[in-house]
Amino acid sequence: MDKVPMTGPGLRSLEDELKQLKGVERPAIIKAIAEARSHGDLSENAEYTSAREKQSFIEGRIGELEDIISRADVIDLSKLSGKVVKFGATVRLADEDTDEKVKYQIVGPYEADLSKGRISITSPIGRALIGKTVGDTVEVQTPRGAKSYEVVGVQFK
Questions:
Q1: How many domains does the chain have?
Q2: How would you class 124 by CB atoms within 10 Å of its CB: exposed for 0-12, middle for 13-18, buried for 19 or more?
Q3: 90 and 61: one domain?
Q4: Could you tell me if 60 and 9 lie in one domain?
Q5: Which of 31, 141, 145, 153 has the greatest number of CB atoms lying within 10 Å of its CB?
Q6: Residues 81 and 21 both lie in one domain
Q7: Which among 65, 54, 50 has a CA at the least distance from the CA of 26?
């Protein structure tokens, strides 16, 4: 079993989701199944079928979260520093074609969220950035074609 690199906040987020599923969602769906069962014939009971499907999803997600959490390798970002891009770095990039500036933090695959500026270390751009320093250029294949970025800043926070 491979360890999964993760930040402290990323691990807490997964633990919070697991707690919500086990403490709130699971008991609610058990109650919904019991309620649907009381309505009689299960073969034609849409409520029962829907509740069972939701229960299956919840139990699957609980199993997935427990697996991820058990393999988590939490990396303390406060102990990282330097000028080289590595896990946990916040990287400022300039698109070499449009000169548009973007900022990404490189995180684990289960805490990536592009809308919040967090990209996975396993993503194409994440892999391309590892080991680079300010002034380096990276070429990344994206679904929209090749993109070229210049690293304009690296920091750890």
A1: 2
A2: middle
A3: no
A4: yes
A5: 153
A6: no
A7: 54
Tell whether 88 and 50 lie within a shared domain.
Answer: no
* 70: CB partners within 8 A, 6+ apart: none
Q: Among residues 64, 80, 82, 75, which one has the least CA distance to residue 132?
A: 82
Phi, psi at residue 118, to the nearest 5°?
-115, 120
pTM: 0.81
61 is in which domain, residue-wise?
4-74
Single residue among 46, 74, 102 that ends a domain in this structure: 74
**Residue pLDDT tens, the chain, 157 long:** 689 999 999 999 999 999 999 999 999 999 998 888 887 776 777 888 889 999 999 999 999 999 999 999 999 888 888 889 999 999 999 988 888 999 999 999 999 999 999 999 999 999 999 999 999 999 998 778 888 999 999 998 7
- Give the β-pairing of 137-142 and 145-155: antiparallel
